[in-house]
Amino acid sequence: MATETAKPEAAVPARxxxxxxxxxxxxxxxxxxxxxxxxxxxxxxxxxxxxLPWMMGAMFATGVATLGGAKLKMDSRLRxxxxxxxxxxxxxxxxPEILERIPRWPITLASLAIYVLIATxxxxxxxxxxxxFDPRTAFFCAVPGGLNEMIILGENAGxxxxxxxxxxxTRIFFVVMMLPFxxxxxxxxxxxxxxxxxxxxxxxxxxxxxxxxxxxxFGFYAARFARIPAPHITGPxxxxxxxxxxxLTSASPPAIVVAIAQIILGASVGARFAGLTFRDLGRIVRxxxxxxxxxxxxxxxxxxxxxxxxxxxxxxLVLAFSPGGLVEMSLIALxxxxxxxFVATHHIARIGIVVIxxxxxxxxxxxxxxxxxxx
Length: 375
Hints:
Strand order of the largest sheet: 1-2
Shape: globular
Strand content: under 5%
Helix content: 55-70%
């Protein structure tokens, strides 16, 4: 009889140091190579007018290079700085007219909690009984939560941190790569990088720069002090939304800065495939692809139902309920000119649900003996 801790075939390599961390002097060459590859990938995607080119191109190029054996490193501090920039950018999507739509959002926010439970159950059954993960690892691979949050919670619970990292990275990779093409084919939406700085060709005055910088700095520290989920993006977005709604500024970070931020974020995702090889790729595609397909099928079902019942736009619901990262899905919404405020708010709520509710559910499962003995 198989034991409760049977590992899937061809398990991922043993845990290695994360390729996304604070860099030392010896890592600068690997960091420069990662940025060069990511920029080249973004330029190629942009040249061929592919969806969300700078982030997707950077993610694809660094992912392939990493699988091919390239030694790439990304600085976590730079990644967090870029997330601050994007938080300010997303806050600019909160225009005064959205105040009329906000009273309808509780319907979808309540549905989101149900979605998280159903999606977790479906993905858990797949990882546990088909992929043959141990129950603790299967659980934290299944939860459609943030990558960092699931790694931390899973490690504390005795799950396989490396497998959780690969599963969630693969999910985010597939969702980010698939959804823009889905909207390109079925939605006839624009997909190239927008000029986020409005009609000033990327120019921004010193007063606006000071306001936006203040939103990033004070927003982050305020959100971290208040223990709001994902403070790096949530705090700047809330402060930016407030100043934009108050009419203090209508400016956004220049387009070139946004493109750089997308390159950094895309490279950070791609670099997380460090330690894997092309031999692992078939298994990664199979396991990650099936899990992503299950989650996206549930997403589409919720989007269709809420479109029919409550009249919300299908495209907004797909991005709001999709099992991708907060930053990535918000960027897709912004780039495709879909209701960014709606999408970002729902992903923040999803992270909040996951961080608060999932540990409680896990402890209940442990108490009832459904998670096996602690390692």
